[in-house]
């Protein structure tokens, strides 16, 4: 999440961001692992701190067998800019 926020800040400045409207977290995990939402909580907690309770995104947390280059977590997000 920190890397995403750094990219957003570089592209348009975090001061110009209204909120994150969508967050999808992919967790590379064994079939028996069922705590995907807890892994995603760190990203949501950071967004809560930055944008507040009323601006939390819709969120999905999914378990997957593999991710590119063996990374453990991949996050897809959509941000809304201020008008």
Notes on the structure:
Helices cover 33% and strands 34% of the residues. With 83 residues, it is α+β, with helices and mostly antiparallel strands. It has a single domain, classed as 60s Ribosomal Protein L30, Chain: A. The protein has a 3-stranded mixed sheet with strand order 2-1-3, covered by helices on one side. The protein starts with a helix and ends with a strand. The model has no long low-confidence stretch (mean pLDDT 96).
Query: Residue-averaged pLDDT, rounded?
Result: 96
Strand order of the largest sheet: 2-1-3
Count of all domains = 1
Under CATH, the homologous superfamily reads RutC-like
CATH class: Alpha Beta
**What is the level-2 CATH architecture name?**
2-Layer Sandwich
Question: How many extended strands?
Answer: 3
Percent of residues in helical segments?
Answer: 25-40%
Which H/E pattern describes the elements?
A: HEHEE
Radius of gyration: 13 Å
- Largest sheet geometry: 3 strands, mixed
CATH topology: 60s Ribosomal Protein L30, Chain: A
Low-confidence stretches: none
Structural class: alpha+beta
**Shape field:** elongated
């Amino acid at each position: 999440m920190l890397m995403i926020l750094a990219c957003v800040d570089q592209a348009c400045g975090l001061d110009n961001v209204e909120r994150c409207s969508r967050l999808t977290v992919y967790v590379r995990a064994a079939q028996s692992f069922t705590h995907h939402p807890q892994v995603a909580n760190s990203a949501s907690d950071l967004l809560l701190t930055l944008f507040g309770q009323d601006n939390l995104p819709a969120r999905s947390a999914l378990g997957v067998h593999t991710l590119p280059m063996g990374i453990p977590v991949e996050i897809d997000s959509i941000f809304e800019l201020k008008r």
